[in-house]
Queue: 2 jobs
Job 1
Amino acid sequence: MLSPKLLTLVLVVQPTRVLLGLKKRGFGEGKWNGFGGKVQPGETIEQAARRELLEESGLTVDALEKVGNIKFEFVGETQLLDVHVFRADSYNGDPTESEEMRPRWFDRDKIPFAQMWADDVLWFPLLLQHKKFVGYFKFQGHDVILGHTLEEVEEL
């Protein structure tokens, strides 16, 4: 039985571009991703999303829209990553490099999927279209998807 680990992921989306961060250390190092991390004891999922966005990018947001929930299983690992995905269409501040992430804007038609987690190319279009989704991905290592489900939903 896998034990769940609660995580957040925030994508800052503008009409023509998306803010991603290059992971500089730890899990996912060398990949472009949204901003997020572990939910701490006593924190709500949204509070954790806001905290992680601020810590990793220097940005605050007035509103977060929950758009997805993806569960990740990694063969040989004991934890099931339960990732709550948020979208922010406006933000405050200037993206600033942190110890963990180097932020950079990408045009929506030039998102670097080849340098991201393999699942991102599958659910990112739903996020960009303001659609809600749930998914499950089973990985072998950090690059090979052994199986997955992904569906659009009305509510999360």
Note: The two ends are 24 Å apart (CA to CA).
Job 2
Amino acid sequence: MPLLPRLLRLVRQEASSIYCRRRCLTTMSSGKRLRVLVDMDGVIADFEGGFLKKYRARYPNDPFITLEDRRGFWVSTQYGQLRSDLCEKAISIWESKNFFIELEPLPGGVEAVKEMAQMENTDVFICTSPIKHYHHCPYEKYAWVEKHLGPDFLEQIILTRDKTVVTGDILIDDKPDILGVEPNPTWEHVLFTACHNKHLPPCTSHRRLLSWADDWRGVLDSKRG
């Protein structure tokens, strides 16, 4: 079946699927189930590297910011500070067709997510925020997951602009500050190190994963209780 009809079917099934999972959580007797939310861009998909490659190809005569010099979560903000017109040029890159589907996986990320999904009493979801220019992004995020994690993982995708309303035990995300309508999310935010946040000083409010070579298994085990 083509991907688009399958996506429509998945959307229709989402409410009942979440309900069933919650029922399963309450009836399991073999131990506490752990729900892990894994961000996509900057955590398992190389957004920064993909952006820089396509930006330099499209605008070869414009200044650019190396990955080593990236500061702050919003790429467009830093480019706008470099030169005012570069903000919109930066945005045009990730609004373009094939940007998200062509992102390379970050080292170890796909393997880690697959291993998590096989762990006993562990539910893993890709929890990702689509951009507001939605013509290509949502479809391509689903296609990326199918390509790299397999078709079964299409059931494990949560697209939301507000991650604070999603229930989980852990959220692995590269964004330092995740805000929304819920002031006290159920999950612990584990900051995934990226080029734009690696300069930030240690913060007592959340733990870090330096990469997927770091002890992510220990982080999960610490939440099982």
Note: The helical segments are 3-27, 47-58, 75-82, 86-94, 109-118, 137-149, 216-222.
